[in-house]
Please model this.
Amino acid sequence: MLPDCFLLNIDYSCMKFESYLALRYFKGTRKGARFLSFIKSMTILGVAIGSAGLLIALSIVHGFKSTINEKVLGFAPHITVTSFIGDPLDRADSVLTFLDRFDEIKAKQIVVEGQVMIQTKDGITGTLLKGVNETGDVSGLSEYVVEGSFDLTTPDDGFPGLVIGKKLAQQLQADIGSVITVYTVNGVPSLINSPEIQQYRLTGVYQTGIDIFDGLYAISARKYTSDLFGLSPQQGHGIEIKLKDANIAHIESFDRELDKHLTIPYYKESIKARYGNIFAWVELQENMIPLVISVMIIVAAFNLIGTVLMMVLERTRDIGILKTIGSRSGIIRRVFLFEGILVSLMGLAIGIGISLLFAWLQINYQLIPLSEDNYYMSYAPVEPHMMDFVIVSIVTIVLCALASWLPARIAAKTDPLKVISYGR
Model:
């Protein structure tokens, strides 16, 4: 039996006959029909769980996509220009000047990077040392600094600033202020091939939540990295470009446009090409999860066939009486079709309420924690989209209406002469 809070006080005087009768049947609590009311309630609950599950899945998938895109697009350059054969760019400063003609570019910088060994008194590991502008990186890395600050300047003690990822800091057991020694890696070390050495002081630790970022880079000022790798101020291993429009489609479009102006020996790589596995993983989640969860709504819609059919069987004598007094088959069909739609609307309303409540609780209290090693974030993000609510509502109502059509059609074909004597 449905709770009283679900039953609406409606003025029936201005309603069509079939709508009036469908509402009366929907709200009715005839004696001996408790089992039918239970089945009706279970069907409403099934529609509610199906629609809520789909809306929650969609909001989580959208949240995943937005969070991952925000982190990747915020940390990594949108387009990278390097040498086609992997050698340093001899006149990287000239390429930087050439790029001034493109209004789409928000920021750009020459970068120097290479493999190094990085060591503290408590640990040693390999990583990539990346030299960027001392005044600020083109990426939004400074927004992800969780300890210290994004400071690459050289204080009075003579140790340049170094910023590393959280995972790398844990491997090295390094704290803010620790002295870090960096060795270049170029072949096998020997008396005639000794590594270049530079000492830094750890000024900041960043954490994006994406493992390949937090354990990969050590960031320093480019002038020190150039000295370490033996490059002149005009040289660089690449040029990083940040666009004003961070939309993936726009980045790909500009990359193709730039390809017309920078040909061999230059090689360009967009952020989607570099981190294609991450974007592909997000796309897979967005495409597959809603498809799987939507089966719940389909199952609930099929359950509605049995529910409406039981409603028809319980109202068989009423159908006979209605036909006897001249009600057309179309009216009988619409009565039970409307009743099925009312069940779906009630379930849909409850489902939308559940999904909105879940979104509010997840945003404010993070009910679902996640492992950052596997999911790139500490809790499941949610991002409800209005269009999802519209589409899920339309699909649910259409499926439930189609499911109600068959039993409603059976009701319309009932023979009143047989029905009047039913049960005697």
Q: What stands out?
A: Residues 1-15 have pLDDT under 50 and may be disordered. The longest strand covers residues 105-119. The CA atoms of residues 109 and 137 lie 8 Å apart. The chain is about 50% helix and 15% strand.
